[in-house]
Design goal:
By secondary structure, the protein is α/β, with parallel strands linked by helices. The protein is built from 12 helices and 12 strands. Strands 2-1-5-12-11-6-7-10-8-9 form a 10-stranded mixed sheet, sandwiched between helices. Strands 3-4 form a two-stranded parallel sheet. The longest helix has 21 residues. The two termini are about 15 Å apart. The structure holds 1,4-dihydronicotinamide adenine dinucleotide and ligand LD2JLWAY.
């Protein structure tokens, strides 16, 4: 990551997430970490009451500066700009207990950040954790950020990737019940996930010739059809057809899911395509919980997020670590740089 003068550092929008969870405290911790200020100029979208409370909790002095327009963010100016902040009552944001007002405000931060990114006013969006159940109870109709961002950006298909230093995993199916996975695993879904992941590895991660492993879904990748037929009938034909288009060594598999992640972790592949949420996220969170970053691939904007949730069990205790958020900011800045180099026709 290159350091630059303040004018050359990109503006990155950071949404606070659910004010009742650990989002505000990990945000103020991250904002007070020099690594964040060295790589970008942060623009916060959140609630002033929650931010000030979090700053007191983790004992950092951060002067927040409400701004109504991104043109008010001038290089070198003191204070952390907060874009059109809400000002909820402390009683509306009890730790660990979401309120309807807080949930509505949370959705507003995400919407505003995405619009700023679509207008090209910020280089990337980094989101804090939301509580999906609480948002749904307040009328939010999307399973999570990923699907909401897809909707806001009008993108036909997006892919969730969890990226750690040694293991990156992209998912074919995301937020659904396990029993719905088989019907959602179509050839089109597998193929689009692979294509979007390959494009992102090249364009956003600067890997010119990625090696992508595709996991099977059944034990031992189906054991030649004895433990399931999805590999033979669905995944393998897609892998073979893409192998022919992308060239040998680019798309590989389907491999037995119980060993493909360790092979990737040891450097054999740049990423693994997993068939469902927990197949892919358990290995990443096991080895990289403090460093992994959630990245939405396939959007016209750069979006990263923490790998953890709202952690209501520890919210307000000052224990939550900000390392995933710091990695999310650094990854977003790096992706934005690779994208702008690619747009300028300069290889990354
Ligand atoms: N990026 C996002 O918006 C995400 C949101 N979620 C949502 O968060 C809510 C809670 O999800 P859970 O499954 O309970 O996962 P969680 O990640 O909130 O908590 C799991 C465990 O990890 C610990 N933990 C989480 N973040 C931590 C941190 N920064 N430092 C130290 N320990 C930490 C918690 O204390 C808890 O023991 C759910 O509604 C889920 O949908 C979950 C993952 C990502
Ligand atoms: N398990 C990852 C997760 O739930 C985050 O989802 P999203 O809110 O980023 O779509």
């Amino acid at each position: 990551m290159t350091k630059g003068g303040s004018a050359t550092r990109p503006v990155v929008a950071l949404t606070m997430g659910d004010p009742s969870g650990v989002g505000p405290e990990v945000l103020v911790r991250a904002l007070s970490d020099p690594m964040v200020g060295e790589c970008c100029r942060p623009l916060v979208l959140g609630d002033l009451t929650a931010l000030e409370r979090a700053a007191r909790l983790v004992d950092v002095a951060l002067p927040f500066r409400p701004v109504g327009d991104v043109r008010e963010i001038r290089p070198g100016e003191r204070g952390i700009p907060v874009f059109r902040p809400s000002r909820l009552e402390e009683g509306q944001i009890p730790y660990g207990r979401p309120s309807v007002e807080a949930c509505r405000a949370t959705i507003g931060y995400i919407e505003a950040a995405v619009h700023l990114a679509l207008e090209g006013r910020v280089a990337a969006v980094v989101t804090g954790p939301i509580n999906k159940e609480a948002l749904h109870r307040s009328g939010f109709s999307f399973p999570g950020h990923t699907e909401f961002l897809q909707h806001l950006c009008g993108t036909p298909r997006v892919v969730m990737m969890l990226a750690g230093p040694r293991l990156r995993v992209a998912l074919v199916t995301i937020h659904c019940a396990l029993r719905e996975v088989p019907e959602r695993l179509t050839a089109a879904a597998v193929e689009e996930t692979i294509r979007i992941t390959l494009e992102a590895l090249r364009r956003d991660f600067g890997i010119p010739r990625p090696r992508l492993a595709v996991a099977g879904v059944n034990p031992h990748a189906g054991e030649a059809g004895r433990f399931g037929t999805e590999e033979k009938e669905l995944i393998e034909p897609v892998v073979r057809s893409l192998d022919a288009v992308c060239g040998p060594g680019c798309v590989l598999g389907p491999y037995p899911p119980d060993t493909v992640f360790t092979r990737a972790y040891h450097g054999e592949f740049d990423a693994v395509v997993a068939m469902y949420h927990d197949q892919g996220l358990i290995p990443v969170k096991l080895v990289h919980f403090d460093e992994a970053v959630n990245v939405t691939l396939g959007l016209p904007i750069v979006r990263t997020s923490v790998d953890h949730g709202t952690a209501y069990d520890i919210a307000g205790q000052g224990k939550a670590r900000a390392s995933s958020l710091i990695h999310a900011v650094r990854t977003a800045v790096s992706m934005a740089r690779f994208r702008s180099l690619a747009q300028a026709g300069i290889p990354g």
